[in-house]
Structure formats: structure tokens, C-alpha cells
Amino acid sequence: MTSSELDSGLADLTQRVRACRICVEHPIGPPLAHEPRPVLRPSSVARILIASQAPGTKVHLSGMPFTDASGDRLRSWLGVRSDEFYDTDNFAIVPMGFCFPGQDAKGADLPPRRECAPAWRAQLMAAMPQIDLVLTIGLYAQAWHMGDARRPSLTETVMNWREVFAASSRPLVLPLPHPSWRNTGWLKKNLWFEMELLPFLKSEIRRRIRQNRGT
User: Fold this and answer.
1) Is the peptide bond before 111 cis (omega within 30 degrees of 0)?
2) What pLDDT, on the 0 to 100 scale, is given for residue 12?
3) How far lies 121's CA from each of 6, 14, 135, 153, in Å?
4) How crowded is residue 68: how many other Cβ atoms within 10 Å of its Cβ?
5) Measured distance CA(109)–CA(70) in Å, rounded
6) Which residues contact 143 (CB under 8 A, 6 or more apart)?
7) Are 164 and 149 in contact (CB under 8 A)?
8) ∠66-72-78 over CA atoms, to 5°?
9) 56 vs 99: CA distance, rounded Å
10) Given this model, what pLDDT does residue 215 score?
11) Cα separation of 21 and 99, whole Å?
12) Which residues is 137 bridged to in the sheet?
């Protein structure tokens, strides 16, 4: 398949995902309580995939991923500016659930809709063969992309990042916690994340961005 055919195929697939209403018309369990608005930014060029969880309320309104406080923290973790982050030459952003799933009685976001990944994820990954680094953000992305390499808890999985990265075949995988401000306590308890994992992560990100630019 030529690059132009790949671009066309990915563009068509992305258009179909953005028109998806499976969570309303053929839901697993209760249907989505509001109008679907799938949010994703795939790429036929980017070598880095951000495999995130699902849009929150602000992203549902904006239609752009990570236009919230979690996005600010994630960009800080990656060591990139906003323009670099939203450049699809640098990053593909494909969450496990494409639509805001709603909130529970306590105001916390519900898990990603169960319809999205079975319907679309394998197709999207097949349409982006150039991806060579997947950042698995949270349990749902880690379950899909890491398989048996995932440990019983998120903390154990992220703590095992060196072994995960070294053992993964292409694409390489780095597990991360969700950058939600709800995880501030976790970050304070696990100082190794900022001291050890983040410098490595920033180095891997910067190297790929420079390679894409030919510098």
C-alpha cells in the first residue's frame, strides 16, 4: 500500500469513526445519555500514539482532545508545547473511548464506552503502521495494548516501565497514569515517576520529534 493510499484509507476510517453512533443505536448496556461526539486525532505520519482513556466534559464541548487541565499536565510530562502536541506530524491521539461517557453519582467520569474498542481500535492501529511508540494512559489502554505485560495494579504496571519498554516489540510501549488532577496524591506518593520515568519519556518524545523534522 502506498503512502497516499494509506492517507486516504485512514481519512475514510476517521470519517466513519466520527460519524459513529453505535453507543446509542446498538449499545452494550444502557445507551449513551447524550448525543455522541467522537473525539480522536489519528495520523499517517506521527510515530507516537497517545492511547488515552475517554474525553471529559471540556473535551466533549471543544471537540479537541486534552483541552483541559489533564492536557496541561500531560504536555508537561511530555515536555512539549501546545502547538507541538496538536501537530499530527508528531502525535496521534486515539482514546479507548471516543465519546464522553458521562459521570457517576459522585461526579467522576464513567469508564470508556465498551463499544468503541471492539468496533474500531484494531482497524485504526492497522491504518497507522508507522507508530513506533505507544503511551498507554490508564488501565483501559494498558489492558488493550499491553496484554500479559500489564501487572495487577496500575502502580505496579507503571513501576515496571523499564521492563515493559525493553520487552515490547514494535511498537514500543510506555505505561503512564492518567494525568488527571485527581491523581495528584498518587504522584506525591510515587516520586520515582517524576524523577526516573519522566526524563526518559521526554527524551524519547524529543528524539522522535526531531527525527520527524529531519534535524
Assistant:
1) no
2) 96
3) 16, 11, 15, 23
4) 20
5) 13
6) 150
7) yes
8) 95
9) 8
10) 60
11) 10
12) 176
Q: Name residue 52's amino acid.
A: S
Maximal C-alpha separation, the chain? 50
* CB-CB contact of 81 with 75 (8 Å): yes
Question: Does 19 score more than 90 pLDDT?
Answer: yes
The residue assigned the cell 464541548 is 61
**pLDDT tens track for 117-168:** 999 999 999 999 999 999 999 999 999 999 899 999 999 999 999 999 999 8
Do residues 10 and 42 make contact, with C-beta atoms less than 8 angstroms apart? yes
Report d(CA 74, CA 49) in Å as an integer: 13
Q: ∠ CA 76-78-82 to the nearest 5 degrees?
A: 65
pLDDT for 201 beyond 80: yes
Measured in whole angstroms, how far is the alpha carbon of residue 147 from the centre of its chain? 16
Which one-letter DSSP state was computed for residue 5? Answer: H
C-alpha cell at 45: 505520519
Q: Is the dihedral of CA 150, 154, 160, 163 positive or negative?
A: positive
The answer to whether residues 131 and 46 touch, using CB atoms and an 8 Å cutoff, is yes
d(CA 130, CA 136): 17
3-state secondary structure (DSSP) of residue 61: helix
155 neighbors 193 (Cβ within 8 angstroms): no
pTM beyond 0.85: the answer is: yes
Torsion angle, CA of 199/39/185/162, rounded to 10 degrees? -40
